[in-house]
């Protein structure tokens, strides 16, 4: 049988569907790995936000006590 997704009588080849499903699953497993590289940028944003919050709280406390 040739590498044809459809057999001569018009029915889909089950192996073609399996290959497409495996390609789909492989795409899904690659996507989270690519997003883990960008999580470093979000960590920097969280750290900057925490530092800014501490500075604001310290400034408010200094003004309230001063």
Automatic annotation (TrEMBL):
The chain crosses the membrane at residues 44-65. Residues 1-42 are annotated as: Disordered. Keywords: Membrane, Transmembrane, Transmembrane helix. Residues 1-20 have a biased composition (Polar residues). This is Uncharacterized protein.
């Amino acid at each position: 049988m040739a590498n044809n997704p459809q057999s001569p009588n018009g029915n889909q080849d089950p192996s073609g569907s399996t290959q497409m499903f495996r390609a789909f699953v492989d795409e899904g497993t690659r996507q989270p790995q690519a997003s883990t590289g960008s999580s470093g940028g979000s960590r920097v944003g969280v750290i900057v936000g925490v530092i800014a919050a501490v500075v604001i709280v310290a400034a408010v406390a200094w003004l309230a006590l001063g």
